[in-house]
Write a structure and sequence with these properties.
Layout: E1 8-14, E2 21-27, E3 32-35, H1 38-44, E4 48-53, E5 58-59, E6 65-71, E7 77-83, E8 89-94, E9 99-103, E10 117-119, E11 130-132, E12 135-137
């Protein structure tokens, strides 16, 4: 194997009701973020842990998803994909970065998620949290 070849790990996951089942190819060390932005806080009531996906990394049936689209802080589009039945959030597309993010809690096995970077916490996190870029305490 060449040094520049990426190693991918295939994982499975699903939503609460099971209507959305997927396989996803993640980097051996996935890019994981705890997002504290206002949009995420208002969507689920707190921070979310998301995994940045590479292009065409996820295989799922998009017919079972609904989409809510709105402008983010940059005024660029954010598309939130969620299960039509149980409303579990599945993916978020952020136009500003042209990236899809998978909600990490949907994975059947979360053991690959060893570390996360906190983002958008400076002005938007709960006061009871002590947050640094690579650390989170409650």
């Amino acid at each position: 194997m060449l040094m520049s070849e990426k190693i991918f790990v295939t994982k499975t996951g699903s939503c609460i009701c099971g209507n959305i089942k997927f396989t996803v190819k993640l980097d051996e060390v996935p890019r994981v973020f705890n997002c504290h932005c206002v949009d995420c806080r208002k969507k689920i009531g707190g921070m979310i842990t998301i995994i940045e996906l590479r292009e065409n990394a996820i295989n799922l049936n998009y017919e079972n998803l609904s989409i809510y689209e709105h402008g983010g802080g940059s005024q660029k589009s954010i598309k939130k994909h969620f299960c039509k039945n149980c409303a579990a959030p599945i993916l978020t597309y952020v136009q500003k970065w042209n990236k899809y993010y998978l909600y990490a809690g949907l994975l059947d096995d979360i053991s690959i998620l060893k570390k996360a970077i906190n983002i958008f916490y400076e002005d938007s996190h709960f006061p009871f949290m002590e947050i640094e870029k690579n650390n989170l305490k409650t």
